[in-house]
Design goal:
The chain is of the alpha+beta class. It folds into two domains: 4-97, no CATH class; 99-237, no CATH class. It is 37% helix and 26% strand. It is built from ten helices and 14 strands. A hairpin with a 5-residue loop joins strand 13 (192-194) and strand 14. The chain starts with a helix and ends with a helix.
């Protein structure tokens, strides 16, 4: 199972936190799951009340968790269409992404210089820092992607980079914004691979990853590259 399964799941889980059962159910077949779990997941105090149900039926409702004791826990079909799923105590604990550690690992792999202090969320995207003078953001909120990009375009008149887990379902409107405004889209599923030590390894060279993607228009892509290089020249020529 390739890393794309992992990046896909990060998009699907709101705020990257859910019951351990869900993390394990979706990612246990991924060869790096134990590495990811060890380095980037943390258990909270809350217990899940419901779990997604994989049993096909006309209702499509979640399973309700019945927690009678730490050794007697089950996910029950409220419509009585399937047998209960027996669970361990850890299965119902809410595990969340160690966001700061995770973001630091991404920045280290792509040579993004992080700002001092805590991570900040800006315009529905996380500000990670700068790469060669270009601001870099990361968003997981794909359903609000157009709004996020529009807000960042208003905030930045200079080039910026926006990373996201995948490019699945990328709307035509987003590609139009990318062509109209001076920003770079990066899909982490295509750019990074998780290593056994918990670090990320870039698929491409560091200098390549900041180059805009060619959305079917070579001239448009070339124009955007030239604008970025011209901006960097103006910035550093004033130093």
């Amino acid at each position: 199972m390739c890393d794309k399964i992992f990046w896909n799941f990060l998009e699907e889980v709101p705020e990257q936190e859910t019951a351990f059962y869900e993390w394990n159910q979706h990612l246990s077949g991924w060869h790096c799951f134990n590495t990811f779990y060890t380095h980037y997941l943390k258990a909270g105090l809350n217990h899940a009340k419901f779990l997604g149900c994989a049993t096909p039926c006309e209702y499509g409702c979640p399973r309700q968790i019945e927690e009678n004791s730490p050794s007697d826990i089950a996910a029950v079909c409220t419509q009585k269409k399937a047998e209960p799923i027996r669970l361990k105590f850890r299965d119902i604990l809410i595990y969340s992404l160690r966001r700061e550690t995770f973001h630091k690992a991404i920045c280290a792999s792509l040579q993004i210089e992080q700002p001092s202090g805590r991570l900040s969320e800006c315009r529905k995207a996380w500000y990670l820092g700068e790469h060669s003078g270009t601001a870099v953001y990361l968003t997981y909120r794909m359903t609000e992607l157009t709004e996020t990009i529009s807000s960042l375009c208003q905030l930045h008149h200079e080039p910026f980079s926006l990373m996201m887990p995948t490019g699945r379902g990328l709307m035509l409107e987003v590609e139009h914004l990318s062509a109209k405004h001076n920003f770079i889209l990066l899909y982490l599923a295509d750019e990074l691979r998780l290593q056994p030590d918990g670090s990320f390894k870039p698929v491409r060279g560091i200098s390549e990853y900041m180059m805009p993607r060619n959305n079917g228009c070579p001239q448009a892509a070339q124009n955007r590259i030239l604008r970025i290089e011209a901006y960097k020249y103006l910035v550093y020529s004033d130093l």
